[in-house]
Amino acid sequence: MCKITAYIVHHSQILIALWNGVETGNPGGTSDVVNFKLKGVPERLIPQQSILYPADIGPVHHIVTPRRGQPEPQNGALELVIKPDQQAKVKIDRILEQINEFNRVSKVNHSKIKEQIDISKKQLIPDEDASKLSSAGQTIRECYALADALALHYQKRRQSTLNSLFFLAGMAIIAFEFYAHLFREIFWLLIFYPAFLAIAYFLYRLVKNKKRDFQNKFLDYRALAEGMRVQLFWRIAGLKNEVADHYLYKQRNELRWIRKAVRNWNLLAGDDKQGDNNKYSTSGQRFHNYITMVLNYWVNDQYKFFNSRVGKNHLKIKKHKLIIETLFIAGVSIASFVVIIDIVNCLFNVELIKGITYNASHSQEDGFFRHLLIVCMGLLPAAAATLEGYDEKMAYSEQTKQYERMKDVFEGAKREFEKSLAEQNCSDASEIAFELGTEALSENGDWVLMYRERPLTAPIPKK
Prior knowledge:
The protein is mostly helical and 463 residues long. The protein contains 13 helices and three strands; from the N terminus they run H-E-H-E-E-H-H-H-H-H-H-H-H-H-H-H.
């Protein structure tokens, strides 16, 4: 009975209790359900949850209801009593707000992402093999595709916004340098400096609006999609574990809604019923085929993904490093060249190159080439620093290290899966799937945390 109580509490966002309010102390009774929801389910009933983590609590809407033994409850029949404290209520309201926002953007953007949803489903498991899944498995596949399509949609918007912010900030610096050193007589050129900065700041404030929070929407929906990916392949591998019990505990406060959403979708998908012809039995040729599906469409595909990204990121880092070094060396070289020319002129009163040597009598026009060099010696290192800042914001180096680790993890899993299939040992394959899933969930949680520490910001001086 206590397990049923724990299940009810564990799978509800808001508990509605029809109860007379009397603490009976009966195991599994209504008072137990209410207390579990308000104070947390005991660790013995949720073995996956660490005792070091705070209890997963929620609100209780208590409707005072008479019973045969107490026809007139103390607080009055049918009185509504809402029981979370204010701090808990704020957290719960935030979770429900984020779930509602996901539902809203899914509806608003459905026509834009409809084609991508179909692509995501086929990329996860092709239609031919997906038809062999249970109805619950097909539902989870559709949920994954929706979250994946939305994540890709907001990833593109995040990337375009970040590029625009750096471009506008760079153009503002160029406009200022050109006015200050080359075209001071063109007074209206200075207008571009505050104009570019103003546009960048407006864009920054626009995307920080909750309804346009591209950065966090991309990260959250990517995390949701990855959770559903693991949940689907766990089911195919014959595992009954819930992803929500193993996911995002380090990011508990900010991303708790994702765990709730994963649990909700898994619950609504239903069980792989006994009468379902596609039920994942844990023995026989059919289960062997399902384990093969896990190997092909999860282990192999993810290994290929991480292996490809490692190569691309290494190439990108190497290319950007070369550009940064070139820009910096060019800036320093130009500065050294101008300084040497000035020193020679100062010591020997010799103008080595006309238009470059400093001379207080030179007009703006006479010293144009010198001013051009000064602009370059300032802009080139600035461009190098901007590209370095862009790489830091994109976390290419840290991302590559994570990709390398996960490539090794999936490569090892691939080897173990092939060994288990060759030995017809599908039970071992299920255990490998569980271990691989927990690793993938942990890595994705770290990935989300890494990028949340690098929010979209306007690369301009702050007041």
